[in-house]
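Input/output pair, single chain:
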Amino acid sequence: MSVFPPPICAATCKTVITQSVHFDGTSKYTAHDGAVTVLPLETDLANALDTALETTGWYVICTAGIDESLYETVAEWTEAQVKLFGYTYLSDTDPVGEIFFRSHGWCGLIDDDDLPGDVPQANHYLNVAAVAKCLSFPAGSETWAYKRLASVYPSKLSSTLIKSITDGNSNYFTQIAGRNVTMNGKVRANEWIDVIRGRDWLQNDMQLRIFSLLLMRPKIPYTNSGIALVQNEMIASLKSARDRGIVAEDEFNEDGELVPGFTTWVPNSLSIPASQKAARNLEGCGFNARLAGAIHAVRVDGVLTY
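Output:
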């Protein structure tokens, strides 16, 4: 007996969008103050993205109302940031290349032969629905697969197109076992979206903890005791990541040996060159951590006998 999802051929950051810029067609846009600036669209788009960085507290870019040919411009920009980019495409081919670790595409088609004009307006914003849903979970506590979305329609795509979407590391929304759910949950470069988000959360958390240590203490001595204070903040951050589900727990292997979820290391003060100490830069701190990951499919084999 097997129990698993039907085969694929069968049927801290909460802000989604910081601001909106309306592109009116090919070469100009209207900003919030009503001013119209005439520029090549790619340049205009890059300027809008750079301006968005002036606003803090957001994590995911969601495109709405720009041509799919410009998605890769956004993907290239996002790759240089600690952000994610989510977009909807209305064709059988994802318009963004499979080299981007921070971009995730969502096929909004209902049927294989849909033209963009045939797709319900709500599904033009499937990316927004997916991002809003998944960012409602704390980083590390979620995957981007098997999530129920509001106000969008599930697809009825052929097994051929679904395989193409899956093999191409894109995502879609469909009905399985009577439930409308997201499928896959990957970025274009074949990594899980939640892994990228979890990694970003850990980086941010560890940076904040170490900065707070430097800020709150009158002085951190460049000695083993001072270095240990830094290591304590690294450990605290990794423990928090473990509690969130980003980093794996300590586990025992088949030989009964304890395998830690993470390890850290820092240099010995007496081994650090005098020139480095004089510059007051601490280097050589690091960690190894095992990802907790997530289960997306289950196979159970069994035998019924008398």
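The first strand starts at residue 22 and ends at 23. The chain is about 30% helix and 15% strand.
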